[in-house]
Amino acid sequence: MPGVSRPQPTGKRGRPPLVLREDVRLTQAVKRRVGGRVVGVAVRPVVGEPVACPYCVHAERLNGVLRDRLNALTRKTHAFAKKPTSWEALVRLCLFEHNWMRPHRALRERVGGLPGGRRYRPRTPAMAIGLAEHVWSWEEFLSFRHYQYKRE
Fold first, then answer.
1. Which of 52, 51, 55 has the alpha carbon at shortest distance from 41?
2. pTM to 2 decimal places
3. For residue 98, is pLDDT > 80?
């Protein structure tokens, strides 16, 4: 399934025009704003039939986070993973940091009585779904016993 279009030969000189395949779908998200805030989003098909889940923002956000934090995914770098085990460790560490140690602004919680006149309590994705009660620190992560290995 390479590419979204295929050339249609016409018998004339030059590059043939590209024609979209039948299974290509394209949607457009139209945001409605009031006073600078998004109050609604309407999704409309542009090419092909409407799709069930038109947003891939979560997958793209995760790809961006991994590219941003893992030098092994950038071009022309000296930081690469030679073994699958080191690659898995890099990705797991990055995902743990993203979900447990880094508060996300969109997940913050409005709380009264915080010190320093703050109005919002920072939350991580792990806190938002109830897996953690606080933002983890690197010291806490590195001293936590993750697995129990049996010596043989």
1. 55
2. 0.57
3. yes
